[in-house]
């Protein structure tokens, strides 16, 4: 048996391709035939063939007669077959698999698969089949698998699978498959038959079922309710078209074809379009494609001006209608444009471009990623605002309703309006809304008021169920009275918002009072509410007084309630009612510490009417008092009303009385009303608010009301009806409530502030005028002046403008200045604390042996940027965000509470924290320093040592002395030690913080607390001023010397005073004139460049021999230091030669100049010494250590600075840093050259004759008729002859 099978296979192989061609006629069509293995278990029957005709581009299936006998598999995929006609495969009775995927089949005729009784698999996927008939699958009794996926049909007709009894799996998923009521039969068919719907058959429409497998859908989900959701609906063109008159424009509309009821209709501006060839309107007949799409064309062959507008393609089906629109703009020969325009409103900032007439422009809305409200709930598509440019080239009003509000409060209020309100959430929503109305003073849009009014109307419907709503509603209405007058006026004009609020308040009693609630009272900032249940038969009259706690202000001024803060009980309006007709006077109100604002007396005959009330019936009586008339805005032409065209305005509170449940006719007795106003106006009129006049807008009417009596600040009137009553006055030139009498502070605050300012400005002027003679570092000079200036600014502005709340612009300026100066003062203290800490912790840098370079100067600008720039930035941002943050919404001119947290109190807390950290570190550094360095005060001026004996006088009687002073820039305070400076700064800081705290508390508190803190403020101000003045002026010897130097008698009393001309720099040589007046010395210094400069000082600068000898004796240092009288600490010997601070020292760094280069070239030399063997340091190097100072006796040998020595730190803000002298530098300085200018020979001869005392030097002879002595080093005169002098000072 095996041998027979092998022979059969060998014969088939030997037959070759020639045999295949003879048995495959379809080979001419590009098909391939092959033998197919027989099924397992099958008999030897007829041969099985596999024909592959894929990818050959066949336009139709091959004829069955061209296919070999026994064809069981026919692959016709990836061809161009478009139609399957009836009997296309008839005769292929052995065919089991037919593959027609990836063709262009759009039509399958009924009976196309007849004659295929053995067909088991049919693949029609990825074609263009749009519709199928019920008989399309006839003749396929054994079909097991059917794949129709990837076609374009959206539904299947019922019974399409009835001819397939053996079907097991079917897949008909398409991108248009619509799972609606038309596919319910498929689910029933699948349940009744063993067939299974493939998982890949998923719904594409509607959207809620997209991606859901059809076999997993429920019958209830497949419904046809509402407008149909078409998978295809296109209008070409889809965008706005701008055409010229006479052009041709075609339109094409394509939509989904559902059934025979599907039609396309055209509309123009909502009017049906009729075909009219004369006007150029042509409508083509609709075409249906593949049972899936329907297309209609509209052609405008000759466009006319009347074609402007919207053209609409409407698709009507049995389920509903859908449409697409496009706008057409027809231009004439001369078209106009709307200019570019910028519109800013509560919805954003919109820039409308230059737009052609007739065009509608669109602008995207400002996006708010976390916005609330329905417009920002993540809807797909960008929201846009639109605006139309009309035919005349003018912009029409735009539509911005799709855009969100830019203001956060407005967006939140808009969200409240959209929320559904019921009895379960009304109270919660009301409390939340009340929180936002607390900021009503900051409302900047009228819609804010509109939304609050709408919410109040909604809440009124629930007050009968929730009694607590009454308190919240009254408080919200009270907060609305804080809104700006103009905004309230606009909201009233827009939608009568103010009238709505007042009407809602008047209806509260009708809803809340009943058998269980006989009385209700609510107090708030600007509104007082009182309601009673009254029995008319027992009514004997009612008198009520509205009052408020008095804060002790001027008697004629109404208390101004704070805006933008939480109400306090003392600031609320209250009503006090008594029965009967007591005598009530507003001027003599009997409640202590209170002021009466309004009163009303209802007569006993109030309920007496021609038709008596039903016995036992209850009547509800309600009273309202409004602090002012802000809710009563007259928006129309009121020239015939009581306000006389707004010439008069409400000058008093408004009081209301009304009844519910009982009729009140014409009163036989009038209602007596007394109202307080802040001052005397002109032309007063009694009036009531009539809601019916001016087209329902309301207005003031004087009908039935008249004035009764007038007292200072109180006006009485009588009215014959119950309503909202007030007194109107002409207020021009009359201070309103907001601009009443200016409050004044306690007298102690003004007096003590003046003392503080006097001390501060005295200090400032002293340090500015005598800045050249006061031994203070450059940075210390800047910090002290700025600190004093900002303290003075804070105190002066606080005392002079903190209570100017009646002048908005002035009050805002006061708030901004106080904000800036308070922050700047604290920052200058922080900067000074940092500089002090750096000086305490600075160590001498290790430099190479010959490195004489100095540290790079660091400018003072960084201090100004910190202490002045940061407050400017904070104040600028606060004012730019909302200038109303500095509005007079408090009894004082300062920031509103909430903005002040981030703009002031948080920065102040941070600054204080940093400052205290520096204080702590500086204090620890002081404690850790060696004891002998803690309290060594720096001398008023280092005393230069004289290197010779008496070789001081020249032949002119002056003393020629060269002082090698080193760097002339002062690095530390010349009077106070770092310990004293530290404690002085701590004391100043503590006093300033206490001053600010006491001042703020004094103006924010009332009664005795205000007086107590005012006195504390005064004490602190005096203490701060005197401390600064005493510490920085009176206790400084250099300041006292500067003061006394202005007195001629003091100058003459000094036997030997030194004057250093401030105009000469150290690199040129400084001249010190001893025993002469500064004027003479100044004249001598000014002429020092001339040959006769030696004698230019005049006779007042000359010294006798006795004076020379005396000066030489006095110039020698004392053998022992003198104890300080103040603290008992030793003081260094100080010379009568007063050093100076160069003017240029504050503006440019100290430079060695060319002397530095000369010293570098000279190289090292032997260390010189004086006659006593001591090392002489330079002017600036003589006092850092007490052992090398002149007071040490001059016997200390040369030594390096030890670790425990107090070494001054480099000046951070001065022109150069100080260096400890090294020995190499001392040797280089020892050989400085003589740069004296020789005078004329005749002049020198005259000087010799005038002063015969020419004592020779022990170490050398005369030079140029002068004896030159280097006081800065220990070199002898011989060394002076050969060395190069760095600088010299002629005395």
Automatic annotation (TrEMBL):
Residues in the signal sequence: 1-20
Membrane topology value: Multi-pass membrane protein
Bias type Basic and acidic residues, positions: 1117-1130, 1215-1248
SMART domains: GPS (SM00303), IG (SM00409), LRR_TYP (SM00369)
Keywords in alphabetical order: Disulfide bond, G-protein coupled receptor, Glycoprotein, Immunoglobulin domain, Leucine-rich repeat, Membrane, Receptor, Repeat, Signal, Transducer, Transmembrane, Transmembrane helix
Gene Ontology terms: biological process: cell surface receptor signaling pathway; central nervous system development; positive regulation of canonical Wnt signaling pathway; sprouting angiogenesis
Compositionally biased intervals (Low complexity): 1081-1095, 1163-1182
Record has Transmembrane as a keyword: yes
SUPFAM superfamilies for the chain: Hormone receptor domain, Immunoglobulin, L domain-like
Entry similarity comment: Belongs to the G-protein coupled receptor 2 family. Adhesion G-protein coupled receptor (ADGR) subfamily.
Name of protein: Adhesion G protein-coupled receptor A2
